[in-house]
Request: fold
Amino acid sequence: MPPPVPSGTPYCGTPPVPGAVAWNLDPGLMAALASALALAWWAGAGRGDRRALLAGWAVLGAMLLSPLCNLSVALFSARVGQHVVLLTVAAPLLALALPARRVGPAGLAAAAGGFALALWLWHLPAPYALTFRSDAAYWGMQASLVATAAWLWHGLLRGAAARPEAVLLAGLATAAQMGGLGALITFAPRPLFAPHAGTTFAWGLTPLEDQQLGGLLMWVPGGIAFALVALPALARALRADPLRP
Reply:
């Protein structure tokens, strides 16, 4: 038997049932998103892609304010779906909005390692459960995942022309570790995430089925996104001058 669901109300509300999923209309969050966007717009004026910044911020806001936030309290698969969109759609757009800067192999390796650490940490059962008891832990999870993903995407997108072989290795390594984590979650023989022990049945899923769906979302769409970015890098690496130092 899985442990009992942690007490207290998670940031995104109580676990909803079908027909009762709510928007997250937290005025503090909306004010923080607007203020951070204004600051990023001012700080990066003329140095980044403003269209990418607006698009990335729109996706970020949608993932945090839409009913998906509330649904993620009930379903592990909804939380993973939220993370997959943040990490593979919002993060690369935000990375494009950063000032262009060449990224070397060491910096790219550090970014890939930082992202892997954040991804695995927050999808271990104990830290994951903590985000349902502590708002600080919840925002620590979201901020660290988006920040490290944007850091990694910045290296992958900006470093492709200069060091395609480094981008190839970082992209494939990230696809492998993200897919590996998804596979471990998918094939786990029992439910691992206590907050969803009694919240999935209203949605026609057992906790294990919900967990398997979440693992597949991380494994397939998540892993494919990082594998795809490695393909152009592979083409560039094959065309590169073998005598280049």
